[in-house]
Each structure stands twice: as structure tokens, then as C-alpha cells.
Amino acid sequence: MHFANMFRIVLLVVMISGCGNTMDDLNPSGVDQRPAVQGGTIGPAVSQRAPDFTLFDSLGNSLTLSSVPASTKGVVLYFTMWCPICDIHMSSMRNNVIPLYPNVRFCLIDYVSGSLTDARNAEISNGYGASKFTLLADTNQAVLGAYAATMGTTVVIDSTGIIRMSEDYKDGVRLTEILGSLP
Predict the structure, then answer these.
(1) Section 112-117 average pLDDT
(2) Averaged pLDDT for residues 147-158
(3) What are the sequence ranges of the domains in the chain?
(4) What class is the 39-180 domain?
């Protein structure tokens, strides 16, 4: 075997052995290992009080989370960057979830456009201009950070301001279960 190939193999073995507990990565336990949170405190985790925010919608109106009317059963935040995967998720919500929950406010959080004008253009060009979603422009990514979110993060906040779900959107099944359990 050529010395260069032998060196690469040895280097690869050293790198892999430095990972430690790689078998756990290959056979995950399925146990949530995130630290426990104290319910009622402010933060992005389930059972915490949702961080309040004020953002502008795509028409220039401000929306403050704490000012959502009490008659609303809850708020769903979906963090989008207008990619094809986000479009699949948003289309799934638009067609299969939103019609079932008319008393829930569904918000798209655009954290990539950088300006209100760009967010509105993205909303229209992607076919969401007349949808039941409220598009909110998170131009400085403050809400993205406050909710420890990323592309596809879906957050359900009940009418009392408590987070009931915060996870990546999959197929809408879990979202409908959580929304169906809201008081």
C-alpha cells in the first residue's frame, strides 16, 4: 500500500476514535437529553412562557404576541426561509391544518429577507399573499434567537402564552394533535 494511502487511513481512524461514544450516535436511545425547564419561566421550551415580541406583518402593521386577542385559542409560529422544504410544510399547513382551526392564528416568521419589502415580495412570489397565514418579518432575527428556532421550527403557543410545542415540522400530525388539545 502506498504511504499516502496508509497515512490517510491512519488519520481517518484517529479522527473517528476522537469522536467518542460514536455508537450512541449510530444507535440513539430516543431519550430527550435536553435539560429540564421550569414551567412558567420565559423561554423557548415546551411549558415555558413564550417570549413576547413585536414584529411587522407584510403590510406594515405591527403585531405584538401578547396583544393577540384572548378569543384566539393559540398562535402557531412557523419559521421559513422560502425554500422548497418550507413550501411543502407551509402548503401542508395551509391545506390540511389551518381549515381545521379557525380560532388559531398562523404566522410565518420570515427571518431571511432582511426587509419588510423583501418579505412582502417573497410572500407574494411564493403564493402566500392571500393565504390565511400572517407573514411577520424578523429582519434582525431577534425572534429566531428568542425561540432558538431554525428553518422549519414550528411553535404552538396557547391562549395563556405557554409554549405547547416547539419542534421541526414533519407531516402535520403532531401539530394537529397539539392544536386539538388546546382548551
Answers:
(1) 95
(2) 97
(3) 39-180
(4) alpha beta
